[in-house]
Specification:
By secondary structure, this protein is an alpha/beta fold. It has 2 domains: 205 residues, UDP-n-acetylglucosamine1-carboxyvinyl-transferase, Chain, CATH 3.65.10; 207 residues, UDP-n-acetylglucosamine1-carboxyvinyl-transferase, Chain (Alpha-beta prism). The chain is built from 14 helices and 24 strands. A hairpin with a 2-residue loop joins strand 4 and strand 5. The structure holds uridine-diphosphate-N-acetylglucosamine.
Length: 418
């Protein structure tokens, strides 16, 4: 299996191009199932999760081709209604096939996604919402089977937690349902707005996306369209932190500062110089940074997907910080690995207490999940000597050309085939 080897201590400098958002691309690709007309989706990153989604769509019956960063979907064959374990286990976002196939076929059997290393990640919120839309649900041989006698019915839905995936699944089902659907306590993430913009371009009638109350008026048919995916805000935050942790100076191109305001505000408070331009972000380390506490929360709160990277940075700051994880129940897998590099961290329930150390020292470490991997790369960039990171397939799920981009910024990083 491939490994990444980093020799730390280089100050990063130069320009880095931010790729399209993974978490926008996946639901938008699934949304293309809602029409038989061609769709063109631009600024799609080259990632394992995108490949998995494309294979998934081809399996279901949608001809889908990626050329560079553009994905084209073509006239479909008759869709299959079964999403087997082999496809679903690779990527949790596969559950988005529920909303789309319910809308198109009125039935879908999806292998239950199960847990993952960052928590149990059930789909009860998705299912409760579908039930309100007159969907019958049963579980049989590891599959959740959903069906409706006729066109799905619009409903008044209140989410007890503003789940991103559930909001997306409901949108995908509601756009072709009969009548009006209201989602209360909807997720407000920029990826929800991007998906809604794509669906509205297809002819859907969605209003209120980006707020806690989304209203969808169902239509009978959707058409093909062209769309450019928004920049990846989590990738952007990761590169900003890479400049902070290596005391560097970088410019992020094609980045949307407006989507990571909470992260930027915290870093500015810490003492990092950040200038937000229209499509780019300038970052410069000018003085020793002060540690900052964070509590993860749904958007616009501090993103759980940046919690691990934030911890890597705090490890090297003089003083102490408390990091609280409120979105996932088991998202501290990186703590043990950061400790192997010399970090002083104590877990207490959903909090981690960080005491800054003068230096981290390179060591062999293992990635447990995507963002934990990003934290280890950041720590490795700042650590003395050599850090060898294994199980990097997690990183390939979410970071487009990671080593290439970091090398261009001056990092000593390479991938080896072990
Ligand atoms: C999406 C993102 C992921 C991000 C997360 C939170 C994608 C592909 N992934 O994941 O990167 O970390 O949002 O911002 O966009 N929950 C339930 N029942 C449900 C659904 C969720 O209890 O039916 C819980 C989960 O276990 C978790 C929390 O709600 O603890 C957040 O999950 P959710 O917002 O649904 O995240 P995802 O859509 O899976």
């Amino acid at each position: 299996m491939d490994k990444i080897i980093i020799k730390g201590g280089k100050k990063l400098s130069g320009e880095v191009e931010i790729s399209g958002s993974k978490n926008s691309s996946l639901p938008i690709l699934f949304a293309s199932l809602l029409t038989d007309e061609p769709c063109e989706i631009k600024n799609v990153p080259s990632l394992a999760d995108v490949d998995t989604t494309i294979n998934f769509l081809n399996f279901i019956g949608k001809k889908t081709i990626k050329t560079g960063n553009t994905v084209n979907t073509f006239v479909s064959k008759k869709y299959k209604h079964v999403a087997p374990y082999d496809l679903v286990r690779k990527m949790r976002a596969s559950v988005l096939v529920m909303g789309t196939l319910l809308a198109r076929l009125k039935r879908v059997d999806v292998s239950l996604p199960g847990g993952c290393s960052i928590g149990a990640r059930p789909i009860n919120i998705h299912l409760e919402a579908f039930r309100k839309m007159q969907v019958k649900i049963s579980v049989d041989e590891g599959y959740v089977k959903l069906s409706a006698d006729k066109r799905l019915k619009g409903a008044n839905i209140k989410l007890h937690f503003a789940s991103v995936g559930a909001t997306e699944n409901i949108l995908l089902a509601a756009v072709l349902a009969e009548g009006k659907t209201v989602i209360n306590n909807a997720a407000c993430e920029p990826e929800i707005v991007d998906l809604s913009n794509f669906l509205n371009k297809m002819g859907a009638k969605i209003s209120g996306s980006g707020s806690k109350r989304i209203v969808v008026i169902g239509v009978k048919k959707l058409s093909g369209t062209s769309h450019e995916v928004i920049p990846d805000r989590i990738e952007a935050a990761t590169y900003i932190i890479s400049a902070a942790i290596t005391k560097g100076e970088i410019v992020l191109k094609n980045a949307a500062a407006v989507h990571i305001k909470t992260v930027i505000e915290k870093l500015k408070k810490s003492g990092l110089l950040i200038k937000e331009m229209k499509n780019s972000i300038y970052v410069k380390w000018v003085k020793n940074l002060k540690p900052q506490n964070i509590k993860t929360a749904v958007y616009p709160g501090f993103p759980t997907d940046v919690q691990a990277q934030w911890m890597a940075l705090q490890c090297l700051l003089k003083g102490s910080a408390v990091i609280e994880e409120n979105v996932f129940e088991n998202r501290f897998m990186h703590v043990l690995e950061l400790q192997r590099l010399g970090a002083n961290l104590t877990i207490d329930g959903k909090k981690v207490y960080v005491k800054g150390v003068n230096k981290l020292s390179g060591a062999p470490v293992m990635v447990s999940d995507l963002r934990a991997g990003a934290a280890l790369v950041l720590a490795g960039l700042a650590a003395d000597e050599k850090t060898t990171i294994s199980r990097i397939y997690h990183l390939d799920r979410g970071y487009d050309m990671l080593e290439k981009k970091l090398r261009k910024l001056g990092a000593d990083i390479k991938r080896v085939h072990a």
